[in-house]
Specification:
Length: 233
């Protein structure tokens, strides 16, 4: 496994791991590696058009299973997953640890938490010609104005910081993009923030943190407030 422990924000209770997807855990055809993945995972890996994407998928999902095996005490190959109404995976059964995974380019970010729904997101920079229009559609008015005030040379970094913070919040909730990212604020700053997302008239509170990476890129993690686990999807 090519996972490296990433320093987690204090007192948030999330263990974080970076996975280098350019270094697969073993040869793609190795039966021992393939045996860790479910039939559904193996089939999905086989549907990728480019071998690079199939390799990244196998490497990330193998690493996820190995990390979950360490904390559950179960063999990696027997772990079984179910999905929420908007596609967020979780371990089958009661009392299981919470987890989330994100990938961008040759990197995956995996978060584990014993007692609360969480979300993580990672973005490796790439040229974006439509940055401002994307921000206007997906950021709150205050976030968009703050982004426009950033020096143009630093605007992509600020955009990805806000984007990863929003994605981490929505993934912690499990809503995906069924909730518009512009209806709540996660901020373009690096400081931790408490925010809330309206869920059918109820405010779901959570904490969001930006993460320091050992390479160019932006990442964030979020954890639902202890009082609002029932609102997770």
């Amino acid at each position: 496994m090519t996972a490296t422990h990433l320093t987690s924000p204090e007192a948030i209770g999330i263990t974080l791991w970076l996975v280098d997807l350019s270094l697969p855990p073993s040869d793609p055809g190795d039966p021992d590696q393939m045996a860790l993945l479910s039939a559904t995972e193996r089939a999905k890996a086989g549907r990728f058009h480019f071998e690079r994407d199939a390799r990244r998928y196998r490497a990330s999902h193998t690493a996820l299973r190995q990390l979950l095996a360490q904390v559950t005490g179960q063999p990696a190959r027997v772990l079984s997953f179910v999905e929420g109404p908007f596609g967020k995976p979780r371990l089958r059964g009661e009392g299981q640890p919470h987890f989330n995974m994100s990938h961008s380019g040759d990197w995956a970010l995996i978060g584990l938490c014993a007692d609360a729904p969480i979300g993580v997101d990672i973005e490796v920079p790439r040229p974006m010609s439509d940055l401002e229009s994307l921000a206007q559609r997906n950021f709150s008015p205050a976030e968009f104005l703050a982004l426009c005030a950033v020096d143009p040379d630093q605007r992509l970094e600020a955009f990805l910081r806000c984007w990863t913070r929003k994605e981490a919040c929505l993934k912690a909730l499990g809503s995906g993009l069924s909730i518009e990212p512009g209806v709540f604020e996660a901020g373009i700053e690096t400081e931790p923030r408490f925010t809330a997302i309206d869920v059918q008239g109820q405010a779901c509170a959570m904490a969001v943190h930006s993460l320091a990476l050992p390479f160019p890129g932006q990442a964030a993690c979020a954890r639902l407030a202890d009082t609002d686990h029932r609102l997770a999807m």
